[in-house]
From TrEMBL:
It comes from the Bacteria. This is DUF6774 domain-containing protein. Pfam families: DUF6774. InterPro entries: DUF6774. Residues 26-53 form the DUF6774 domain. It comes from Pusillibacter faecalis.
Length: 56
């Protein structure tokens, strides 16, 4: 995936967040946010390990 326009990317992410938030209760929104943070952290860990081990 290649996207070289950071403004478009952040706008898309913001729009997605608003769309998701409109559909969830406050409790479900909090849980979803926590799950997505964990997902992001795990993906970052995998990416770092791949970079260190020379795998793509």
């Amino acid at each position: 995936m290649k996207n070289c326009d950071p403004l478009a990317l952040t706008t898309a992410v913001n729009t997605l967040a608003v769309a998701i938030a409109e559909q969830l209760s406050d409790d479900d929104l909090g849980l979803t946010a926590a799950i997505l943070v964990q997902l992001g952290d795990t993906l970052a860990t995998i990416a770092a390990q791949r970079a260190r081990c020379g795998k793509s």
